[in-house]
Amino acid sequence: MNNFEPLAERLRPNTLDDYIGQKHLVGDGGIIRNMIESGKVNSFILWGPPGVGKTTLARIIANTIDAPFYTLSAVTSGVKDVRDVIDRCTREASSMFAKARPILFIDEIHRFNKAQQDSLLGAVEKGVVTLIGATTENPSFEVIRPLLSRAQVYTLKSLEEEDLQILLERALKNDRVLSKRDVDVRSTKALFRFAGGDARKLLNILDLLEQSVPEGSPVIIDDEFVTNCLQVNPAAYDRNGEMHYDIISAFIKSVRGSDPDAAIYWLARMVAGGEEPKFIARRLVILAAEDIGLANPNALLLANATFDALQKIGWPEGRIILAECTIYLATSPKSNSAYLSIDNALEMVRKTGDLPVPLHLRNAPTSLMKEMGYGHDYMYAHDYKNHYAAQQYLPDGLVGARFWTPQQNPAETKLDAYMQALRASADKR
């Protein structure tokens, strides 16, 4: 038995019942639990922050359905490695003794380039392997569309405090090392704060706390002891760890809160820590649409130009481009009306389903469709004053619904006044 095995590895669960968190996926009625219980597991990608159980879940699935399990790391594997594994999986799948399709687990799949991802398509399409990918980055940006169309994406969440409490109690009770120590937990506030919803981080901290106290002495866990043990260099930055998420969160909130000095500081922390410039630029594009929005539409143009310029200019000069965009967004007027409007509309779609398109708005490429009334009485807006025709554009039952609510800023006030004037002019005809 390895005495140096980390606590996180010693406590890695082997069954779904021992798995902590992600109840929306593996709880009663959860889609992944249903797949496992049916024995029919389709390809999917697990997207979530570090330490929430992506690798563990993949291993549990393989163990439960008794499927051969192969792993690749996108950091160290090339196209040849992918093809070699697929060849082995093909032989496994064709074996008369095979009980289930082989599972190919790819950690950090977002780091695979297009050629590497392309090399997976045939095997996934033909059912040679069940692909389970794991990523901390949004698959919509990092995974090619053909692969996304063949693999459902499931989002994993950071662990809640109640999950961390269960994990803590399990570690103290079941671990072969901690269960033999006299551990007195007097406060978990600092412990859970430093863990940040990351199970592996929590267990690593417990490992450190236990090793910091001589054998035979009680391990008293309180906020002061945890904080003292975890004194770290404040400039430390783990681009793949929990600080990555804390600092990008502070950056986003500083821009949203119109504090250019704080925003630049957090940008500097990411630049100094080696954060991927493309990741920062992508967040700026999202910020421009979500938090500045219609209050200053030029923000989105500048953010998109920033993203493009980074790819042309490269590093380290790219930091100046990021800084310019950051300051511009932080000092711009703010509005989230576009963000709220699409969420309001999506909520209505969820409630009302697929309402039919009004006949006069439908396309009529054939004579039969024209005879059925498709496109009949449609009013071509450019034929009317101010290029505006008052007619029904929403489905029956939603006429008069409003999803966009203009906010109090000069740009949207102007847009709102323009729309009101258009409607008033049409009502007079």
Q: Unreliable segments (pLDDT under 50, ≥5 consecutive)?
A: 233-237
Strand/helix succession: HHHEHEHEHEHHEHEHHEHHHHHHHHH
> Count of helices?
20
Largest sheet: 5 strands, parallel
How far apart are the first and last residues' alpha carbons, in Å? 87 Å
**Estimated radius of gyration:** 27 Å
Mean pLDDT: 86
**Anisotropy-based shape:** globular
Portion in beta strands:
5-15%
**Strand line-up in the sheet with most strands:** 2-3-4-1-5
| Residues in helix, % | 40-55%
Instruction: Give the class from helix and strand content and strand pairing.
Output: alpha/beta
How many β-strands, per DSSP? Answer: 7
What characteristics describe this protein?
429 residues; alpha/beta; 5-stranded parallel β-sheet; two-stranded parallel sheet; 20 helices; 51% helix
What report would you give on this structure?
The chain has 429 residues and is of the alpha/beta class. The chain has 20 helices and 7 strands. Strand 2, helix 5 and strand 3 form a beta-alpha-beta unit.
How is this structure best summarized?
With 429 residues, the protein is of the alpha/beta class. Helix content is 51%, strand content 7%. It has helices at residues 7-10, 23-26, 31-38, 54-65, 79-94, 114-126, 139-142, 145-148, 161-174, 189-195, 199-211, 223-229, 242-256, 260-272, 277-292, 298-313, 318-330, 337-352, 367-371, 410-427, and strands spanning 44-47, 69-73, 103-107, 130-135, 152-155, 183-185, 219-221.
